[in-house]
Amino acid sequence: MHDGALQHDSLLSALPQAAVLVDLRADRIEEINRAAARLLSVDPADPPAFSRLVGRAMPDFLVFLQEIEHRSEAWTRTVRMTDAKGAALQLELRARLVSDRPGLLMLVLLDLSELARRAEIAEASALQRAGLGEWKRAQTFFAELERGNQLILNAAGEGIYGVNAQGQATFVNRAAQEMLGWTSEDLMGENIHSKIHHHHLSGDVYPAHDCPIYRSFRFEQVHRIEDEVFWRKDGKPIRVEYVSTPIYDQKVLVGAVVIFRDITERKENERKLREALDEVAALRDRLEQENAYLQETITSERAHHDIVGTSPIIRQLVRKIELVAETDATVLITGETGTGKALVATAIHKDSARRKRPLIHFKCGSIAPDAVEAELFGQMRGAFVGALRDRPGRLELAHGGTLFLDDVEELAPEVQGRLLQTLTDGAVTRLGDTRARSLDLRVIAATTTDPERAVAQGRLREDLLLHLSVFPIPCRPLRERREDIPALAAHLLDIACRRLNRPLPVITEGTMRAMVEYDWPGNVRELRNVVERGAIVSRGGKLVIELGSEATRAQPAEGFRPEAEMQQLIRDNLLACLHETGGRVSGPAGAAELLGLPATTVYSRMRKFGIDRTAVAS
Q1: Helices 485-500 and 509-517: crossing angle, nearest 10°?
Q2: Phi, psi of 559 (to 5 degrees)
Q3: Positions of E strands within 73-153
Q4: What is the mean pLDDT of residues 486-493?
Q5: CA–CA separation, 6 vs 1, rounded Å?
């Protein structure tokens, strides 16, 4: 403990009042004297976090802190703290910031109930000692005080009015008249509840028999109300907190006195603070989701390389990217698997005005059908079984940026319909929510199948296709631009060697000729895989690839099959399995179980290969 802390500890121990030193930054009770420990039921050796003692009164305490920062010191009776056992306390808080310790608050706690009890004891003792003569002098004093009470009432900064047992106003001080807009003549002798307390803020009628002010003199109770409304003469409400106390005359209950304070501004500040905190929480949640998505994207195995090639096809592709990137037009990218559709989408986004916001990649066929809507549109906690938290979808994450819908034809028709409605309206509604959230995003879609054929097969809604294909960009297969293969192979080899920490081998003329003459059914993706395998197995400084000799390049080398042949084998195997199960996919002895695959994967492959389960079953 440093000298400053010792000094504060010594000061707290010397104070007769309950006092604590609070480290606001760490939410920790730094020091506490014995009086405060007793009052708060706290073990000085192991005090709880200070926020636990503030509890639900945290908004009031934050407003109090703002006053302290503005005035250097302040006091309040509105913060309703509890002790460590959860019992409510009536306290007056006096506080000031410790100048030599940033974030350290000196807090003195006055127990109002104890002060009231002591005042009663002192008053009773004084009366017992005074005798009859002193009592008469006291009567004279209070009689004189009564004559001047109107001056005192009018000097008070809080609104004060009296009401008799019939509910009629007996006096109204100047502050109350100014706050309410009613004059004393307007209210005196009138039923004041019907004048200023007749409705709730919601507009519901406030019956007099439910009014805490009337209950004060009907049931002889003191009522402290922290948030109600009084109505001004001009019909506008003001938010108030008030205390209603019974009035006795010779032990006979004659009415009540009400002391109130206008808290409209404070409540508005609290509302703004809550909204700001909610906005910060929502922004934090969105940023966390964006960060998680971006981390996933960074660590994924997709190649995000620059577009490589000088062929007329590539030059035309680059020109189209340049034309559309500077607009917000929707783009539909078509092409076979591995032709670089994701690379084109990335290039469009990087050249657009939205480049500072993320490009959100949503691969439509990689999500289980029952989870697609939550992933795309977002969810609210409790929207379905397993929805444990509010979470934005990919549409919200792309707000201000670009959404890339890869394999859009893999979405279920009903999801395509909702997606179209969302894009048309420019607003998204999460699952389980009724509030629509505005969207500002650019959409890029991609499909591996011919769009017109996908519409004919019922895999792609025609209205969604019309919305997406504002600016179509085809990605040509590698076999149609063979002149790009040398530069592309060298580029991919350099990237693979750096990533694998392997020496860069030389691509011989014969190897390059074999690569140029090969048809590459898997396109650039297959070329990348072949080059990467070559980087791993090559020895002696020359790149070795597994494409077979020139004479037999049409036939697959031993242990190697082209991508097109592999896809055909997968389709034939799936058809045979479905015939075996009678078209049954899930459940015992279903195709998913026989293949050892998730049912969602089997359904995805059936859509990909255009397999009709009913036709197979028949």
Answers
A1: 110
A2: 85, 5
A3: 73-76, 91-97, 104-111
A4: 92
A5: 7
Return the number of other C-beta atoms located less than 10 Å from residue 167's C-beta: 19
Cα–Cα separations (whole angstroms), residue 436 to 252, 279, 442 = 60, 16, 18
pLDDT of 415: 93
d(CA 564, CA 31): 75
Task: For the chain, state the CA radius of gyration.
Answer: 39
Can you tell me the distance from the alpha carbon of 258 to that of 255, in angstroms, rounded to the nearest whole number?
A: 10
Full-prediction pTM beyond 0.85? no
The pLDDT of residue 381 is 87
Residue 264: Cβ-neighbour burial (10 angstroms; 0-12, 13-18, 19+): middle
Residue 95 DSSP label: E
Of 321, 162, 171, 319, the closest CA to residue 247 belongs to 162
3-state secondary structure of 198: coil
| Mean pLDDT lowest among 38-52, 61-75, 167-181, 210-224 | 210-224
Q: Contact at 8 Å (CB) between 165 and 253?
A: yes
Instruction: Determine the Cα angle at 533 with ends 529 and 537, to 5°.
Output: 175
Q: Tell me what pLDDT residue 556 has.
A: 43
Convert the pLDDT of each residue in 76-91 to its tens digit.
999 999 998 889 999 9
Backbone angles phi, psi at 75, to 5 degrees: -140, 155
Helices (H), 191-340: 192-196, 212-218, 264-299, 312-325
> Average per-residue pLDDT in the chain?
83
CA 341 vs CA 335, 481, 527: distances in Å: 7, 16, 15
| Nearest by Cα to 341 from 583, 132, 119, 525 | 525
